[in-house]
Amino acid sequence: MTATGSNSERVVLVVDDSGVQRAHLVRLLNALQYGTVLQAADGIEALHLLDEQQARVHLIITDIDMPSMDGIEFITRLVDQARTVDVIATSARDPRLLETVEALRDETSGVRLLGTLAKPVTEEALGRMLRGAEMQRAPRRGEGPNFSLDEIEAALDAGQFQPYVQPKVSMKTGLIKGVESLARWIHPEHGLLGPQHFIPKIEGSALMPRFTLSIVRQSLDMLQNWARSLPHLTMSINLSADDLADPGFAGELVVMVRERGLEPAQVIWEVTETMIMRSTAMANLARLGLKGFGLSMDDYGVGYSSMQTLSRSPFTELKIDRIFVDGASQRANRHAILQSSVDMGKRLKISTVAEGVEQVEDWKLVRSLDCDTAQGFLIARPMPAEELLSWVKGNRARMKELASD
């Protein structure tokens, strides 16, 4: 086991049975100036090293295919020992093995799985994953502020929940087609908080319909304000299972849209497959479709019966989950699912949206598959509503260039 130094306080442990691969990763981490790098030849040696280290290891990069203790068992041991560490898994084997590891993401407690990388790992891919982890440090379970329902209700009373918006652009022209409304909590002490801090607490409570209507009301006001500058813009708004379970909810949405002089076709209601399993939810969704609203199946491909649900529901849009988009240009299995999803949308004559477009290579792939719309960090991060018009003006040339490549 060896170490190399840097000026950073971060400590990373590289675990791989190949000395050549370990040396390669050390070079990449040093080039990225990530921190002090430790090395171990397998999971057993890595666990001993973690026990010996007085300084906490912040990141572990581990191979999956190793003798004596493979990478999956190693990650499981980290979870069993209640370690608090970020992990990146690598492999030169079938990319579906990496997908299996990523499926463990919700079962790893304090171990935060940043993602997986196919070998040979490139400096660009590793750097992108590390930067993304720094910029989007979602709290681990048990970390971060834990708010009560009373605190959330008080924040709702105070108007602290606001919608941010993320652009959706045409892949053929690069022009903005719509935005998705994403709820954020502007907390007076903790700053900007994402939905993971409040949605799980609200779901299933009597507060959910009121929360949704607040976000819907503000989102529709934004759309009304943009009518002159962006007359053809659509607004996508997420609904919850609680919302769709209320027989009178669809009627409230219709009234709110009508009061603002908006056309139903300007609004797209986004739902996931699991939200519409109950007959009441399906009936509400059908009513919204009959009124002329857009209906979008979010996270397509993640559910167990997505194709069946899509075939029997009045959806007008299919949003392909980011797990099949991000890195699809490098992984044949993601490419295949992405292509079949786009083809499915075309056969059903509904528009397709690729979520999670973060790399130019993935943009080019999605565009070559004739997907209609893209959304993701390559285009723009979620932003306050007042920044949208300046974003449109400042990024028009960049978007046009992307669409023409």
What does this structure look like?
The chain folds into 2 domains: 3-135, 3-Layer(aba) Sandwich (Rossmann fold), CATH 3.40.50.2300; 149-404, EAL domain (TIM Barrel, Alpha-Beta Barrel), CATH 3.20.20.450. It is built from 15 helices and 15 strands. It is 40% helix and 21% strand. Mean pLDDT is 88; it is low at 1-7 and 138-142. By secondary structure, it is of the alpha/beta class. The protein has an 8-stranded mixed β-barrel, surrounded by 4 helices. Strands 1-3-2-4-5-6 form a 6-stranded mixed β-sheet, sandwiched between helices. It has helices at 19-31, 43-52, 71-80, 95-102, 123-135, 149-157, 199-202, 207-225, 241-245, 249-259, 279-290, 306-311, 332-347, 360-368, 388-404; strands at 3-4, 11-15, 36-40, 59-63, 85-91, 111-118, 161-170, 176-187, 191-193, 234-238, 267-271, 294-300, 317-320, 351-354, 373-374. Helix 8 runs parallel beside helix 10 (249-259).
